[in-house]
């Protein structure tokens, strides 16, 4: 179940996200309402435990957190690594995913470490954890991407054309790209262990607690792990139930 129709339940949970093609995380919506991929499937699990319907509020990347802060969405559920900068703007739940970060280059490029990238033009989403990692690569020229409905596709196209030499993004989307598209190869992955969470408006402790309880429940009973395995079989499920929830699950 990737979408719960708002007409099927009295309560509606409005979740902000971009409408972009970035499988296995999420696919571009066919109708502006329904979504598929790991994140929508995980959101559906959590919403079901809360007795809520999901309404996706689809916005440009830079508008998602402002929409939550002004009340146009209840939470942002869309690739939010829990950085200090974001945590100053929204209150985060427990994580629903943990990812590392990967550099992809063209298939004929021999670079396999950060130390081999001097003089390279390296792309990443502006103000992202991926850009923070790229900033640590010695001697590279950084190229920021953003303000697009398909920023991931933009970075792929720029690398394919030679406009940039490679780009950094999360391993969940990059490892399949490097293995399935003959034009690209995974140069290396950095084990950054970025935790992704759901961001609610500052001080909305009741909603955050409810989301946390639902997340703990779907981790404890294995439902979230099943969704993870369906969409991301190349990556091990990174979350373990809390002691309290594990005891209840048994």
- Broad shape: globular
Count the E strands.
8
- Percentage of helical residues? 25-40%
Largest sheet: 8 strands, mixed
Strands side by side in the biggest sheet: 2-1-3-8-4-7-5-6
- How do the SSEs run, as a string of H and E? EHEHEHEEHEHEHEHHH
* Radius of gyration computed on alpha carbons: 18 Å
Describe the structure.
The chain starts with 11 loop residues before the first strand and ends with a helix. It is 33% helix and 25% strand. The chain has 250 residues and is an alpha/beta fold. It has an 8-stranded mixed β-sheet, sandwiched between helices. It contains 9 helices and 8 strands.
Question: Which structural traits does this protein have?
Answer:
9 helices, 33% helix, 25% strand, globular, alpha/beta, disordered C terminus
Summarize the structure.
The protein is α/β, with parallel strands linked by helices and 250 residues long. Helix content is 33%, strand content 25%.
Describe how the helices and strands are arranged.
Blueprint: E1 12-17, H1 38-50, E2 53-58, H2 64-69, E3 75-76, H3 84-87, E4 91-106, E5 121-125, H4 129-134, E6 141-145, H5 151-161, E7 166-170, H6 171-180, E8 184-200, H7 205-220, H8 223-231, H9 243-249
Helix pairs in contact: 1-7, 1-8, 7-9
């Amino acid at each position: 179940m990737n979408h719960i129709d708002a007409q099927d339940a009295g309560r509606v949970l409005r979740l902000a996200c971009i409408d972009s093609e970035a499988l296995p995380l999420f696919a571009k919506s066919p109708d502006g309402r329904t979504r598929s991929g790991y994140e929508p499937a995980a959101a559906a699990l959590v919403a079901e435990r809360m007795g809520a319907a999901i309404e996706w509020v689809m916005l440009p990347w830079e508008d998602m957190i402002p929409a939550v802060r002004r009340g146009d969405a209840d939470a942002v559920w869309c690739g939010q690594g829990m950085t200090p900068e974001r945590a100053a703007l929204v209150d985060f739940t427990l994580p629903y995913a943990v990812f590392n970060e990967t550099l992809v280059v063209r298939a004929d490029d021999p670079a396999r470490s950060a130390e081999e990238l001097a003089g390279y033009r390296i792309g990443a989403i502006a103000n992202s954890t991926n850009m923070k990692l790229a900033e640590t690569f010695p001697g590279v020229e950084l190229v920021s991407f953003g303000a697009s409905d398909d920023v991931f596709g933009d970075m792929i196209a720029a690398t394919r054309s030679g406009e940039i030499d490679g780009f950094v993004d999360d391993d969940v989307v990059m490892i399949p790209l490097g293995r399935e598209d003959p034009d690209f190869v995974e140069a290396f992955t950095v084990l950054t262990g970025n935790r992704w969470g759901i961001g609610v408006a500052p001080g909305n402790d009741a909603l955050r607690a409810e989301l946390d309880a639902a997340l703990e429940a779907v981790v404890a009973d294995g439902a979230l792990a099943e969704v993870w395995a369906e969409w991301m079989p190349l990556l091990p499920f990174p979350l373990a139930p809390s002691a309290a929830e594990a005891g209840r699950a048994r």
